[in-house]
Specification:
- The chain is α+β, with helices and mostly antiparallel strands.
- Helices cover 22% and strands 27% of the residues.
- It is built from seven helices and 18 strands.
- The chain has helices at 49-52, 76-89, 97-110, 187-202, 248-259, 312-325, 344-347; strands at 21-27, 30-31, 35-37, 56-58, 61-65, 71-74, 123-132, 145-154, 165-170, 207-211, 219-222, 226-230, 236-239, 265-267, 279-284, 288-297, 300-303, 336-338.
- Strands 1, 2, 3, 4, 5, 6, 7, 8 and 18 form a nine-stranded antiparallel sheet that branches. Strands 9, 10, 11, 12, 13, 14, 15, 16 and 17 form a nine-stranded mixed sheet that branches.
- A hairpin with a 5-residue loop joins strand 12 and strand 13 (236-239).
- The protein is globular.
- The structure holds pyridoxal-5'-phosphate (PLP).
- The site of pyridoxal-5'-phosphate has 12 residues, from helix 5.
Length: 350
């Protein structure tokens, strides 16, 4: 199958239509077998619970082409488990881990020609989405669900790629409530953060750094990514907070940081502490690791990358993570999974 003709080096983080998405329906208490389709419109009752009562959740992960030409996905089981956790919190039918993984492998295989070539720095972004589809006007969980997975080839989330970005602390609005749903991946969290994020962009910042919603005293997370700091004595620290999404990238960096003797620690991080870090970064599937060039907090600015160059530890972490993802380094933790090539016939389910 020949590769799609796209400008792989300049993709940006945008939606490009690919050949297939995959859909599973929950009806009468069971999931169906799932079907691949080229149709990118979904039929939905106007009273569906996902539209009115927020019974909607999603995930995000990536597939890469390795040097040997394999297509691999990164830590797909972790995304499956996180979605189960999300579903339990907002009373949606769960997608079993095995079905989630199978859906991802099938849809990536079907869109193989859109997996950016090895060495381009781009990836195939995978977006699993679960919707409550029962028509209802009373507040209650849906009894019908649509689980779908679509893909799109993407470049870096922040325009500059692996270059420092500038953040502004948001301390006038909350993205999430304490004990709310900030630690699960539901659409409402992103709507809640949109105004702050757009305001930051208008002011020339890449995004917002949120503080904890209760006291506005501790660092929470950075737009759609977790935050980490590197202390002056070389320790990897990242916020311990119940209102941030538990990032799979961050979890991976913590493992890598252990091997690099960075003594990783999850703990409360006072906002004042950012003025003392040697380096700081954002991490996530989309952001990968994006070094933070500066943080502006009220009328103060902490600059980490005076020359606009990423710091040494951010660079080492970035290289260690991406080398595993694209198969340039061994995968001692079993994080990548090869996408099997299915027969054309199997791929086109009825
Ligand atoms: C709010 C938020 N925080 C953090 C992350 C990073 O999580 P992950 O590394 O699992 O992509 C994401 C992206 O999914 C996000 O949307």
């Amino acid at each position: 199958m020949s590769k799609a003709q796209l400008d792989w080096a300049n993709l940006g983080f945008a939606f490009h239509r690919t050949d297939y998405n995959i859909r599973y329906t929950w009806r009468d208490g069971a999931w169906d077998e799932g079907v691949l389709t080229s149709d990118d419109i979904i039929p939905l009752p106007m009273a569906a619970t996902c539209l009115h009562y927020g019974q909607e959740c999603f995930e995000g992960l990536k597939a890469f082409e390795t040097k040997s030409g394999d297509v691999v996905v990164f830590r797909v089981e972790e995304n499956a488990r996180r979605m189960i956790h999300t579903c339990e919190r907002i009373m949606m039918e769960t997608v079993p881990e095995e079905m989630f993984v199978d859906a991802v492998l099938r849809v990536v295989d079907a869109n193989r020609r859109f997996v950016p070539p090895y060495g381009t720095g781009a990836a195939l972004y995978i977006r699993p989405l679960l919707l409550g589809t029962t028509a209802a006007v009373a507040l209650q969980p849906a009894i019908d669900y649509l689980f779908l997975v679509f893909t799109t080839p993407v470049g870096p989330y922040f325009k500059a790629g692996f270059k420092p970005v500038h953040l502004i602390v948001e301390d006038t609005a909350d993205r999430a409530a304490p004990k709310g749903v900030g630690n699960i991946k539901v659409g409402g969290n992103y709507a809640a953060g949109m105004r702050a994020s757009m305001n930051a962009k208008k002011l020339g910042f890449a995004d917002v750094l949120y503080l904890d919603p209760r006291e506005k005293r501790y660092v929470d997370e950075a737009g759609p990514a977790n935050f980490f700091g590197i202390t002056r004595d070389g320790q990897y620290v990242t916020p311990d907070s119940e209102s941030i999404l538990p990032s799979i990238t961050n979890k991976s960096l913590i493992t890598l940081a252990e091997g690099m003797e960075l003594r990783p620690e999850r703990r409360l991080i006072e906002i004042e502490e950012v003025f003392d870090f040697a380096e700081a970064g954002c991490c996530g599937t989309a952001a990968v690791i994006t070094p933070i060039g500066s943080i502006t907090y009220r009328n103060r600015k902490m600059v980490y990358c005076a020359e606009d160059e990423p710091g040494r530890i951010c660079t080492e972490l970035y290289e260690a993570l991406t080398a595993i993802q694209i198969g340039d380094a061994p995968d001692p933790f079993g994080w990548v999974r090869v996408v099997p090539e299915l027969q054309e016939a199997t791929r086109r389910s009825p």
